[in-house]
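User: Can you predict the 3D structure for this chain?
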Amino acid sequence: MSREGDQGYQTLEVLGPEHEYSVIDEHLQPMPIVDQVIKKMCGRVTNTVEFSDFAFSKELQLHVAELKGTKPFRSPSLFEETMYQSVLEVASVLDGFEAKLLGLGMHPTLTLDKARIWKYDDREIYEAYDKIFGLAQHGWLNIQSYQLNLPYLNEKEAVRLYNGIANVLPYLPAISASSPIYESKFGDYIDNRLHFYRLNQKKVPSITGEIVPEYIDSFETYMEQTIRRYSNDLKKIDTPEVLIDKEWVNSRGAIIRFDRKAIEIRIMDEQECIKSDVALSCFIRALLRGIIESREIDLSRSVLVEDLYSIIRGGLKAKVCQPKFKSARDVCRYLYEVAYENASGEEKNYLWVIKKRIEDGNLSDIITERVKKRMQKTDLSEAIFSTYSKMADRLLRNEIFE
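Assistant: Here is the predicted structure, written as structure tokens:
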């Protein structure tokens, strides 16, 4: 995220979004055609196609694509305008394949035997992961996250920002969960994506690190207790060199990206439309301003880990160990107050979305309610199709699903 010719962005100055979407047909079925779409866009198969304002990129799964801006955004409204326009431009290309995009944390009907893996550049990375962990898991082949990159100016501010993120990160899924259904059935968790994500590399637990980042006091501490630790663990099981000493192998819910002078938050499920992603971004940035300013970082990591696992299962209704509150919803109400007090005028224009999610339910809650209501008149399969088709329409229209 650094700019040419200077020392980079001020801490929290800009928002760097990355959106992951399934490519689907009119029946909601995943279409493993991202390589064909890229070839249509630029005449050859490559990892990324860059346009003037956005980039379209491959993911591990051949039915999933990533959209991100070519540069980060200071303005939330410009973020929304630019990335929504990118959705429309990609949609126009997908029309030629009789395909469209679907957001959310997991594809609701995908079965693992139907998933296909990217087989071009970077395949040696995927082959290495497959050798060690086996990629035929939902935690690899059926997850879609919304990732937010937040810049830091220097090491001192990076440490403060990273620790601040760790302190609030377990509570974000209570708001962002959007994965109640997979393989055409209700899962046991409010956030099934995170449930599978935390298990996908259990052979080497230090990679995921219980998802919640450890507090740090320097970059050297981060390197020692995180990157060197999992790299040493990987070496013990004869891991290919392509995965050794790589910062991006870290699978915690937030990681330091030294290559872009940013911290990448990856705990959130993808939402139903760009406006919702912008709202989450405004909430997180404003919240972190308040957390960093007050230096209110006082929760033990064991409490944070326990609360995260409780929220993965129970969402907003989950009981928490956080000593000041009884439920995740109570924590989120408090975090919303902190965010609102520290939000810019433009950010406040989006925070109503977060308030609504906290009070009325996250997308997992809403989807579950809509599917069960529809099931009073039809079967589960048709109820899923009806509800998720509306989700795909919301993405195209950039409208909140209520």
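The chain has a mean pLDDT of 96. The chain has one domain: 16-396.
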